[in-house]
Amino acid sequence: MTAMTSEMPGGMDENPLDLLPEVLLAASAVLGLLLGAWLPRRRQWLVGALGAAACAAGIAAAVGQGAAVADGGATTAFEGAFAVDAVTSAVRVVVLGGTLVVLVLARAGFGGDRRESEFHVLVQLAALGALMLAGAQDLLLLAAAYLLASVPAYTLAGFRRDGPGTEAALKYFVTGALLGVVMLAGITVLYAAGGATAYPDLGAELPGAAAALVTAGTVGLLAGLLFKAGGVPGHFWVPDAVEGSSPAAAALLTTLPKAGALAALYRVAAVPLAGTAVPWAELIAVLAAASMTLGNLAAFFQSDVRRLLAYSTVSQVGYLLLPVAVATRADDARPALLYYLAAYALTNLGAFAVVCALPHARTTDDYGGLLRARPALAAALVVCLLGLLGTPPTAVFLGKLEVFTAAVDGGYAWLAVLAAANTVASLFYYLRWIRPAVSAAAAPRAHPVVRPAALTACAAATASVALGVAAGPVLALLDGPLAR
Length: 484
Description:
Layout lengths: L19 H17 L8 H28 L2 E3 L4 E3 L1 H25 L5 H20 L3 H19 L5 H32 L4 H7 L5 H19 L7 H8 L2 H7 L2 H15 L9 H20 L5 H21 L7 H25 L12 H4 L1 H15 L5 H15 L3 H26 L12 H19 L1 H8 L6
Antiparallel strand pairs: 1-2
Helix pairs in contact: 1-2, 1-4, 2-3, 2-4, 3-4, 3-10, 3-11, 3-14, 3-19, 4-5, 4-11, 5-6, 6-7, 6-8, 6-9, 8-11, 9-10, 9-13, 10-14, 11-13, 11-14, 12-13, 12-18, 13-14, 13-17, 13-18, 14-16, 14-17, 14-19, 14-20, 16-18, 16-19, 17-18, 17-19
């Protein structure tokens, strides 16, 4: 029987240091779980602090490994099952940085809660699953990473144990279980077609396999990954899960799994599917168009700020799928995807940090007079919402410019035009939130403000602008080789 993983150079030594960021996060989660069992309620913040330290150390390790990859080329670990390349390094920084922000927001929302330590541990485990998704170079590891990214997230969605939280967790779980089974079926079919699970082996075998098998397996695999990304057709869970969960959990659900899933989609497109006759690029292009359009249309009618951001994240998946569709057709597809992921994660977390800072403001009208009452927080909200729109000089503006350019270079000019039209259309619902916040006529609402979340929002808004200004050097760092 053909080996289920390939023995590639650099993968036989099984050096745990190749997975140092993941090891640090896993160790922090396990230690935090043990600490939470005996720490008093007022000391459970130590679990979050431990997780934050692990994230900071993991970011430092990822930057160091990224520099090594840029100098010495991409490598793989554990018999080729895990890739250590530019994609992995970039997603590590994005996911670990996002986890750090979510841990701060969780402390602001669950500080002193009797289950605070459990929330911190679940956040770290969900982030670990996203990291494994991004680096998976084998279908079996991809399936395991899918489960690791999903199960903690289901629990986080219903962590508050109230009615909306329970409904959110149930819908999220049912959708995830269904599409997870579809994904596993797709993996099984691809294994039957290619006789292997390692991506390089599949890349060599699938072009000569039966087209029907490859097509069926590809559709099943895409279904599971699009569920994690929150794109069409696996997007139905997003609005209810985001609305019913806590703001900190919603920030995680709309950011961290998306980064891992889109990196995994890019890796699947660039290696196993690259030489096949299956029209996967056309399929992803259609799904991108559907995601950005349906997300925007649904967001037009939302007054609840969490549902508005939920549908906004569905539309953002559409833009992020553009470089995936041209993964083998445009040289700038990879840096465009990675830069946009970083820009979106930073800006989206900033918007959710504003929501966390004003936990009693649920609708756009509840933000009336925010500029007069909390000018710094209002400025952060405006920067983040206009950033999600793609207004210069924020990072998302440069990200959209890069992915639109990649789409045109890859022969999908029509998709770039549709994405530009959707960007203009999204201005309507972002302004529906901004208008009452900056209106001089609106009376300020006496909402209590969670200061750590407010400071996080201001920091994220500032960083979004800084990343946009420094786009040139950052894009140069992201243009590294892909492990094969």
